[in-house]
């Protein structure tokens, strides 16, 4: 029985891999989540969401999952890994963090270490989470207990980088807390653990790295919209630019930017700076450009249908993919959902198929979803869709194919007479 105990609050894409890693490293882990179904499946050794690695690890590593925070009474290290989504107006939604902190605070004891992994805008840990913990516990942060921030860097579906080898940054309220937190993560992971000089710096690292990605994607998305008019293949151009071995980092255009990180995190920075009197015009513009892509993609479909003398009204359209990125089942903020909404608005009859999100798909396989449609949009570059051949599309009598992820070889489809529309090509 390990003499190291740890609590992980929030057993999703971030908390569960961390909890499993801690078990592997000899911790006795109590996982706390408010979702009973999730708690039950974990206690039965089953992953609550589609993830091969988690499913495998849960078979061999025991986590005690519960909804009961009283388990915290004899635990000294607690890591908060709850979601931090945004509201419709893209304002940061800190309700899950507030719920977790106010409940956890009731069980806080002298000498405890609380670590927030959830992505928050700079300043939130100290000005929002700390007061909640102090009020609920009657203790003083940085004196009676330690409070740190170590932003999560989970990359769903990535087989090279995982919770064990991804480097981390850590910020803390006080020096001793920083040392304890760095030591904790160095016991867990074999990537670099870099101490930052403050909580705000650690928070800023995460939003900056993801905002960097969002603005780079916006750059190529704007190029795609421009090159569509200039009749230049933007994918070829980006690949050409990638031959430059320095000072160029390729990103690729698509039907939109989904997920719980990239389209969300920039709003944290935009919002926080706005509170302090600075307008991030560039970051906000990048968000607007990326948010335009689902409609741009639907307009590519309408253009294709018009060329084939097909009216979108009452046309049968197949949307392939609901997930926000290839070969995973997560569809949070997915551009596919936005495109479906727009297609409905234009009066199309929409059918969907995603092998990783079957419960939300109208059809359960490629053959069925493509039977009787005039056009198809590829919204996610799942491996199954990348294997679609021009001949197959031809035999299905499909006239227009919109490749929302530039996942297919355009030339092969044009060659057999299919009206192929890419994003920027
Ligand atoms: N996307 C593009 N063009 C690109 C890259 C991505 O349109 O060139 C789209 C994707 O289709 C998706 C969205 O952006 O809809 C986000 O894609 P992503 O590859 O960034 O995937 P995420 O959201 O899982 O991002 C995670 C992030 N990891 C963390 O926040 C810890 C991100 O920092 C990583 O850079 C990213 O994985 C990664 O590199 O794969």
The string of secondary-structure elements, in order, is EHEHHEEHEHEEHEHHHHEHEHEHHEHE
Percent range of helical residues = 40-55%
Shape: elongated
Calculate the mean pLDDT score and round it: 95
Question: Would you report the number of β strands?
Answer: 13
3D architecture notes:
This protein has about 425 residues and is of the alpha/beta class. It has 15 helices and 13 strands. Strand 4 (about 75-80), helix 4 (about 95-105) and strand 5 form a beta-alpha-beta unit. The longest helix has about 30 residues, at about 200-230. The N and C termini lie far apart (about 60 Å). Ligand SAJ binds next to helix 7.
Write the layout of secondary structure elements.
Elements (H helix, E strand, L loop, with lengths): L3 E6 L5 H10 L2 E6 L3 H8 L8 H9 L3 E3 L10 E4 L14 H11 L7 E4 L7 H14 L8 E4 L18 E5 L2 H14 L4 E3 L3 H32 L3 H8 L23 H11 L5 H27 L8 E5 L14 H11 L3 E5 L12 H5 L4 E4 L4 H4 L3 H6 L4 E4 L6 H6 L3 E3 L4
Bound molecules: ligand SAJ.
